[in-house]
Write a structure and sequence with these properties.
Helix content: 25-40%
Organism: Simiduia aestuariiviva
CATH architecture: 3-Layer(aba) Sandwich
Shape: globular
InterPro entries: AB_hydrolase_fold, UPF0227/Esterase_YqiA
CATH topology: Rossmann fold
Strand order of the largest sheet: 2-1-3-4-7-8
Strand content: 15-25%
Order of helices and strands: EHEHEHEHEEHEHEH
Pfam families: UPF0227
CATH class: Alpha Beta
Protein name: Esterase YqiA
Distance between the termini: 8 Å
Radius of gyration: 16 Å
Length: about 190
């Protein structure tokens, strides 16, 4: 059975708005696709282990969709396992942004989980970085220029040879994302390849 793996962002959860939108759309329009959205911690070793196990357990084609830090992980998965990825306002260099969170408790936006990041976490994250993309045709970048958290131009540069949707305005949440769900699912898991 084909599977869509949705990866939420930093301190977010499977209850994030876009994750729920994708889940609900698949339930209504593509019940033939299994939806998976694991709860990811900010600790890279745990995230890498979780995602690797999901890929090993997959019983069919997998498409990956990731937002913000989830876009970083979606790119890592695409490079490691050769799957397609849709990255939404992705974090292309989280190692530069996360030092501000070192050694102080940070709380998940959706629950009471609290984490403390260390230098080891940053080093583990850097080890998963993908400076170059082996097959740009596997990616679709979606960014909005009004992203208040990340500089969209960094993503446009990194994914320059990939399919891109660059919308003026908007924000880090990617306003109007629901307009793109059907096309994104079809890109990740084309019916003729299932």
């Amino acid at each position: 059975m084909p599977q869509l793996l949705y990866l939420h962002g930093f301190l977010s959860s499977p209850g994030s708005f876009k994750a729920v939108q994708v889940r609900d759309w698949l339930t209504q329009h593509r019940p033939d696709i299994r939806y998976c959205c694991p709860a990811l911690t900010p600790h890279p070793c745990a995230t890498r282990a979780t995602l690797t196990q999901i890929m090993r357990d997959a019983q069919g084609p997998v498409g990956v969709m990731g937002s913000s830090l989830g876009g970083f992980w979606a790119t890592w998965l695409a490079e490691q396992f050769g799957v397609r990825a849709v990255v939404i306002n992705p974090s292309v260099n989280p190692m530069a942004l996360l030092p501000q969170y070192l050694h102080k408790p940070v709380k998940n936006f959706h629950n009471d989980d609290t984490y403390t990041l260390t230098e080891r976490d940053l080093a583990d994250l850097a080890a998963c970085d993908t400076p170059s993309l082996q097959d740009p045709a596997r990616y679709w970048l979606m960014v909005q220029t009004g992203d208040e958290t990340l500089d969209y131009r960094l993503a446009v540069a990194k994914y320059q040879r990939c399919r891109q949707t660059v919308e003026a305005g908007g924000d880090h949440a990617f306003q109007g994302f629901e307009r793109h769900i059907e096309a994104a699912v079809n890109f990740l898991l084309p019916i003729e390849e299932q």
